[in-house]
Write a structure and sequence with these properties.
The protein is an alpha+beta fold. The strands form seven sheets. It has a four-stranded mixed sheet, with no helix packed on it. Strands 2-3 form a two-stranded antiparallel ribbon. Helix 7 packs parallel to helix 9. The chain has 23 helices and 16 strands.
C-alpha cells in the first residue's frame, strides 16, 4: 500500500515541462537547459548498435563509453535503432515532426482566423498509437502532397474573399497591384508567425517573387495585389517550415548534443499545452531568449494553462489515452458522455485543482436526467453533479465514454477491456496473438452457452491461457457494464446467464466494478506511474525508449512526492 500524497494535475504538467518540453535529460536528473541530441549526417553508429537515416540527420544517442562507441544516429522511423544503443542517457531525440490534423486546424485558426477545420476535411487521417502526433507513423506520400495542395488553395481562396480576415494579414493599403513595400509587410508579418521563429531577409525575399504574378501580362490572372497575397498563403501552407516542426538547435560542449533555441522550446510548449502555435506573448519571451531558463518556462506554462485552449488540449489527451475519442453510441448519448467526462476533467484539473488521481475515484458525476436514467442514478433538477452513492461507480472508469470503448463483436469484450487496463493504465506491453489465431471471431464453444463460460473454456486452452489469463479476468470484473456503460444483470439477450461481475487483476487481487478496479490500481501505484509515461509519450510524439527509463523514473518519483 502506498502512503497517500497529493499529486496535483498542474504538477503533472509542470513536472514534465521543465524536463522534457525543453527536450533534455541526463542519467540522473533532466537538464534544465533544454538539449536535443542531433547530428548533421544521415547515418551513424554506436557500440550499442542501431543505424538509421532521416531528413537533416536526426537523433544521436551515445554508444557504450567503455567500448569506444561513437555517437549513434537514427533518422525518421528510428525508434528501434535508438533503443538498441547503450550507454548513459544524454538527451531526448529531436526529429522533424509533422503537425497533426488537429494541430494544423488549430494553427490555421490562430494564424488566419480559419475556423472551418480544413485539415480534417482535406488531409489524410492521422494514425493513432494511441496519440495522433506519433512521428514514427508519419509518412510523406503523394496523397498528403495532393491533399495539402487542395487545402492550401481552398484556405487561400476563402481568405481573399473575406475582407475582415484578410485585413488581419494585410496591414497596409497597396498603392498599386505591384506594391512591393506593402507586400513585404505582408510577408514579413505573417512568415515569422507561420515559421514560429524569426526569419531572415533571404526567406522573405524568396516569397517576394510571387508579387510578379499580380502584374504579369496574363489574361487568366487578375492584376490585383491580392493575387500575390493568395499565392503567398497557398505557398506558405505547403512550406515544410510551416507543416513540420523543425528543430536545429545550437551546439553545446557535449558533441552531438545541441540546445534547443528559445523559439523551439516555445513551439514545444504551445503544441503540448494548446495544440497550436505560440501566441504573441510566448514568442516575445522567446525573442528575449528567456525560455532556456526553467523558472521562466514554468511561469509561461502556468499562463498557458489558464487559457481555454489548455482545457481543450487536455480533453483531447485524455480522450486519446483512454480510448473514447470516437464514442460508438448515438449522438445524444455521446454528447452527454462527453459533457460528463469533460466536466470531471475540468473540475479536478482546473476549477477545483486537486489530487490528479481523484479523476479515477471521484464520488460524483455530471449528468442530466437522460444520463441519470441510463446509469440508474437519481435525476438532478437540472444538469449537474450527482453522487454515485453505493452504485459501485466512481471516477472516469465509470463513465459511459470510457466503458463504451474497447468493445468487439457488438458487445463488451473482456479481452479488449483487459488490454485497455494493461496497456493504457498500467503501461504494460501485451503481445499480439499468434498469426494462426482468428481474432475476428469471439470465443466459441460446443457446450457453453454463457459468455463467461465461453471465455473460461478459451483460457483453458494451453495456447491461450498465458495471455488471456492476464487479460480476461480484468474485463470480467467490468461485465456488469454494457457497451454503453449501462448496468446489466445478465448477458445480452439471455436472462439465464447471470453476470456475477467478479474480476481479478494479477498480481494484485480480486475486484468487482470500476470503482474497485480504480482503487486497486491507485493503491499499487499503477495509474500515477502510467499517466506520467503516457503524457510524456504524447509530449515527445513517439513511444518512450528504454534509454530514457532513469529520467522517466525521476519524473514519476517527483510526481508522487509532489505536494
Amino acid at each position: 500500500m502506498r502512503t497517500p500524497v497529493r499529486r496535483t494535475a498542474s504538477l503533472l504538467l509542470l513536472g514534465v515541462l521543465p524536463a522534457f518540453a525543453a527536450a533534455c535529460g541526463s542519467s540522473s536528473q533532466p537538464d534544465a537547459m533544454g538539449n536535443a541530441a542531433r547530428t548533421n549526417a544521415g547515418t551513424g553508429n554506436g557500440n550499442g548498435g542501431g543505424t538509421g537515416s532521416g531528413v537533416g540527420g536526426n537523433t544521436g544517442l551515445p554508444g557504450d563509453p567503455n567500448g569506444g562507441g561513437t555517437v549513434g544516429l537514427a533518422g525518421t522511423g528510428n525508434v528501434a535503432g535508438a533503443a538498441a544503443m547503450s550507454g548513459p542517457y544524454v538527451a531526448s531525440e529531436s526529429v522533424v515532426r509533422k503537425l497533426s490534423r488537429a494541430e494544423f486546424d488549430n494553427t490555421l485558426l490562430d494564424l488566419l482566423g480559419d475556423a472551418t477545420n480544413p485539415a480534417s476535411q482535406f488531409l489524410p487521417e492521422d494514425q493513432f498509437s494511441p496519440y495522433d502526433n506519433d512521428y514514427t507513423l508519419q509518412l510523406a506520400s503523394a496523397a498528403l502532397v495532393d491533399s495539402l495542395q487542395r487545402l492550401a488553395e481552398d484556405v487561400a481562396a476563402r481568405l481573399i474573399a473575406d475582407p475582415t480576415r484578410l485585413a488581419t494579414i494585410v496591414p497596409c493599403t497597396p498603392a498599386t497591384p505591384g506594391d512591393a513595400a506593402c507586400f513585404s509587410q505582408v510577408v514579413g508579418g505573417l512568415l515569422p508567425r507561420a515559421y514560429r521563429r524569426p526569419v531572415t531577409q533571404d526567406e522573405i525575399d524568396r516569397y517576394m517573387s510571387l508579387l510578379t504574378y499580380a502584374t504579369e501580362n496574363n489574361p487568366d490572372v487578375p492584376h490585383d495585389f491580392n493575387t500575390a497575397v493568395g499565392l503567398f498563403v497557398r505557398s506558405l501552407l505547403q512550406d515544410p517550415e510551416f507543416l513540420y516542426r523543425i528543430e536545429v538547435g545550437t551546439p553545446t560542449a557535449n558533441g552531438g548534443v545541441d540546445a534547443l533555441t528559445s523559439h523551439e522550446i516555445a513551439s514545444r510548449m504551445s503544441y503540448l499545452l494548446w495544440g497550436t502555435m505560440p501566441d504573441a506573448t510566448l514568442l516575445t519571451t522567446a525573442d528575449a531568449g528567456m525560455l532556456a531558463d526553467a523558472a521562466t518556462r514554468t511561469t509561461e506554462a502556468t499562463r498557458l494553462l489558464q487559457d481555454p485552449r489548455a482545457r481543450a488540449q487536455l480533453h483531447r489527451f485524455h480522450a486519446m489515452w483512454l480510448g473514447y475519442r470516437a464514442i460508438p453510441v448515438d449522438g445524444t448519448l455521446a454528447a452527454a458522455f462527453s459533457r460528463e467526462t469533460s466536466a470531471l476533467l475540468d473540475r479536478v484539473m482546473f476549477d477545483e485543482p486537486q489530487n490528479y488521481l481523484n479523476l479515477f475515484t471521484f464520488p460524483e458525476t455530471f449528468i442530466d436526467a437522460t444520463l441519470a436514467e441510463h446509469y440508474g442514478l437519481p435525476a438532478p433538477a437540472a444538469e449537474g453533479w450527482v453522487s454515485y452513492g453505493m452504485s459501485g461507480r466512481a471516477g472516469l472508469l465509470s463513465h459511459g465514454s470510457v466503458l463504451s470503448a474497447f468493445g468487439k463483436f457488438s458487445d463488451t469484450s473482456p479481452t479488449q477491456r483487459g488490454i485497455f487496463v494493461r496497456t493504457r493504465l498500467m503501461c504494460e506491453k501485451v503481445s499480439p496473438p499468434p498469426p494462426n489465431v482468428n481474432t475476428d471471431q469471439p470465443p466459441t464453444s460446443m457446450t457453453a452457452v454463457c459468455k463467461a463460460d465461453r471465455y473460461a473454456e478459451h483460457r483453458a486452452n494451453a495456447a491461450c491461457a498465458t495471455c488471456h489469463g492476464m487479460l480476461d479476468p480484468i474485463g470480467l470484473g467490468l461485465e456488469n457494464y454494457d457497451l454503453s456503460g449501462q448496468w446489466r444483470d445478465h448477458d445480452n439477450n439471455n436472462v439465464d446467464c447471470a453476470i456475477d461481475g467478479q474480476g481479478e487483476i494479477k498480481p494484485y487481487g480480486a475486484f468487482s466494478g470500476p470503482a474497485q478496479l480504480a482503487q486497486i490500481l491507485i493503491d499499487n501505484n499503477e495509474i500515477d506511474d502510467c499517466v506520467v509515461r503516457q503524457y510524456l509519450s504524447f509530449a515527445l510524439g513517439r513511444p518512450l525508449l528504454a534509454a530514457e527509463d532513469t529520467p522517466i523514473s525521476d519524473l514519476v518519483t517527483s510526481f508522487r512526492q509532489s505536494d
